[in-house]
Design a protein that fits this description.
By secondary structure, this protein is α+β, with helices and mostly antiparallel strands. The chain has one domain: Macrophage Migration Inhibitory Factor (2-Layer Sandwich). It is built from two helices and two strands, in the order βαβα. It has a two-stranded parallel sheet with strand order 1-2. Helix 1 links the parallel strand 1 and strand 2. The protein is globular, with a radius of gyration of 14 Å. The mean pLDDT is 97.
Length: 76
Amino acid sequence: MPHVVVKLGAGRSEEMKQALARRMAEALTSTIGCGEDAVSVAIEDVPMAEWTKAVYIPEIEPNLDRLYVKPGYGRT
């Protein structure tokens, strides 16, 4: 049962976030073969001024070896 949490720089519209969540759910069901009823997707808005402190340092930097897609940036 996949549960995905997407952290985004704040400012995307509700329509964009809904479309992203739908596309991610579709990708999960078609790629790993689970049913739609097994998927949940959450989206958290993070103010860009807080991104490094709130997301990069605690979640990305210490887990680079586990990231399947790595960002092209570092601490700012």
